[in-house]
Amino acid sequence: MHKYKCLVLDHDDTVVKSTPQIHYPAFMETLNKLRPEYKLTLEEFVMYNFEPGFLEMCYDIFGFTQEEMKLQEEHWIKKVNKKIPTFYEGIGETIKKFKADGGIICVVSHSFSKIIVRDYVSNINFEPDMTFGWEYENDKRKPNPFPLQEIMRKYNLQPRDLLMVDDLKPGYDMAKKCGVDFAYAGWSCNINKIRQFMKQYSDFYFEDVASFDEFLYKK
């Protein structure tokens, strides 16, 4: 039997390989059009998403207006709709096994819920029990505690019953606000600064999916 009743999974770069294939190219289209004087590497993009976060990057670093954010979102949606990213090796099997053993699978992400469900169905023919995506208002998106609070309310769970799994700091921040254990999905990141932060502050740190799977069932 697994240690937790509910896995709360981030989506992009935790379950699917989407940033280099989809999100970074989409954002660069926006940046090249709106702020051509700025250059942004993939590593810098990942770092900004880690700290201070995607919205803060758009508004505070690049100074996007509300209208410019709509354009950014249009570019992103176009890319997302064109390509279905693949799951990291082994993560689909872990998810399905956890569910088959009576666990609850929820997703809290900055992708749209319909895209999350599409990716799950396309890759492993499976739908999460609950999804909280970009369609929610800003005060209900990660890192705000609303998604975890709703999961606990619906399934009558305590913080100790949940494990939040993410590759970036917003998931960590959300988990800490709710007293929920946090596991870092280290299989997607090769940026040392992020790895060192997560090693220091995460409750659990996993270099690969296999070690994460083993942890879930280790007594």
Detailed description of the structure:
The chain is α/β, with parallel strands linked by helices. Helix content is 51%, strand content 11%. It is built from 10 helices and 6 strands; from the N terminus they run βαααααβαβαβαβαβα. The chain has a 6-stranded parallel beta sheet with strand order 3-2-1-4-5-6, sandwiched between helices. Helix 8 links the parallel strand 4 and strand 5 (181-185). The longest helix has 17 residues, at 66-82. The model has no long low-confidence stretch (mean pLDDT 93).
Summarize the structure.
With 219 residues, the chain is an alpha/beta fold. Helices cover 51% and strands 11% of the residues.
Tags for this entry?
six-stranded parallel β-sheet, alpha/beta, single chain, globular, 219 residues, 6 strands
